[in-house]
């Protein structure tokens, strides 16, 4: 089980409290689809994904991004208990959504980059390290029930 | 995988800004790498890795200078980095997974320093460019 120090938890929660989760969610999912276009394979029903501006302006992308990032908020409230927190979601991603867990790592890294653009200097190497630990642990938790 | 004209333009124009902070970007990228991915320190047992160390600064400059060489010869990255490719294949033998980690930390650094320039399109171009650089550096591994 991953253990987060008090400093790591503080680094995570302080930035999270300043984030507009709705906007950031759309940005994160949008960037995933732009930077790693093969991830679009999961979103055939989303309509126009033909260009970066189409993707970032797409209302379905924004809505789904918000959903994903809101769920990430659960991770932050349960940093000591991620595997249990994401057990059901893990089963869903395996059995119904058929998502390769590699994609969780890609999204995690995109989120880290978005945090960097929003927080600039405040996103110090130490703060980044705490977030990398979190996104990695969430990715592992989401893959935990795969079979 | 090769870069489109648009992607090359994005890289080259951003590099003009980046090169003015090249040395600090290099050092900070390595700091981020060692903090976020401590296993990468195993390649530097001979270094003083404390933030601000002279060796870190020198090595950071080296790394960013090499990226700069790739930018300046963006139409022929393989040619520009041929010697460096041999160095990594025969002497350094850094496991290929680490190039992704270093690339990510450089992107984080660019995103933090140039948020307005680091649009989704620029992010995609840089990710792809660093992926090409990484491929060149590992292409002689076996």
Give the overall silhouette of chain A: globular
Provide the gyration radius of chain B in Å.
14 Å
Portion in helices of chain B: 55-70%
* Fraction of helical residues of chain A: over 70%
Structural class of chain B, by secondary structure, is mainly alpha
Estimate the mean pLDDT confidence of chain A. 96
Q: Biggest interface: chains and residue counts?
A: A-B, 24 and 23 residues
Oligomer: heterodimer
Number of domains of chain A: 1
Low-confidence stretches of chain B: none
InterPro entries (chain A): Globin (IPR000971), Globin-like_sf (IPR009050), Globin/Proto (IPR012292), Hemoglobin_b (IPR002337), Hemoglobin_oxygen_transport (IPR050056)
Pfam family, one (chain A): Globin
Keywords (chain A): Heme, Iron, Metal-binding, Oxygen transport, Phosphoprotein, Transport
Subunit structure (chain A): Heterotetramer of two alpha chains and two epsilon chains in early embryonic hemoglobin Gower-2; two zeta chains and two epsilon chains in early embryonic hemoglobin Gower-1.
List its salient traits.
heterodimer, A: 147 residues, mainly alpha, Globin-like, 8 helices, B: 142 residues, 7 helices
Walk me through the topology.
The complex is a heterodimer of chains A (147) and B (142).
Chain A: H1 6-17, H2 21-35, H3 52-57, H4 59-77, H5 82-85, H6 87-96, H7 102-119, H8 125-143
Helix pairs in contact in A: 1-8, 2-4, 2-7, 7-8
Chain B: H1 5-18, H2 22-36, H3 54-72, H4 77-80, H5 82-92, H6 97-113, H7 120-138
Structure, briefly:
Chain A: Belongs to the globin family. The complex is a heterodimer of chains A (147) and B (142). Chain A is an all-alpha fold and 147 residues long.
């Amino acid at each position: 089980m991953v253990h987060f120090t008090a400093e790591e938890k503080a680094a995570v929660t302080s930035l999270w409290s300043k984030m507009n989760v709705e906007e950031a969610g759309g940005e994160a999912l949008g960037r995933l689809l732009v930077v790693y276009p093969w991830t679009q394979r999961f979103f055939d029903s989303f309509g126009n994904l033909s260009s970066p501006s189409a993707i970032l302006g797409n209302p379905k992308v924004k809505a789904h991004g918000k959903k994903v990032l809101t769920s990430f908020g659960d991770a932050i409230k349960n940093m000591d208990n991620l595997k249990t927190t994401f057990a059901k979601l893990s089963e869903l991603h395996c059995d119904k959504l058929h998502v390769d867990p590699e994609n969780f790592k890609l999204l995690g890294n995109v989120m880290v980059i978005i945090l960097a653009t929003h927080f600039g200097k405040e996103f110090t190497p130490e703060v980044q390290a705490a977030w990398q630990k979190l996104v990695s642990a969430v990715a592992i938790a989401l893959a935990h029930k795969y079979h | 995988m090769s870069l489109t004209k648009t992607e090359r333009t994005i890289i080259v124009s951003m590099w003009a800004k980046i090169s003015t902070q090249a040395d600090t970007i290099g050092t900070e990228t390595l700091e981020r790498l060692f903090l976020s991915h401590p296993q990468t320190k195993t390649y530097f047992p001979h270094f003083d890795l404390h933030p601000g160390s002279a060796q870190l600064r020198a090595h950071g400059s080296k790394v960013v200078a090499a990226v700069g060489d790739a930018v300046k010869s963006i139409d022929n990255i393989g040619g520009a980095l041929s010697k460096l490719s041999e160095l990594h294949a025969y002497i350094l033998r850094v496991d290929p997974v680490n190039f992704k980690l270093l690339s990510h930390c450089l992107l984080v650094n660019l995103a933090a320093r140039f948020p307005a320039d680091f649009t989704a399109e620029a992010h995609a171009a840089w990710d792809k460019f660093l992926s090409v650089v990484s491929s060149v550096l590992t292409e002689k591994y076996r």
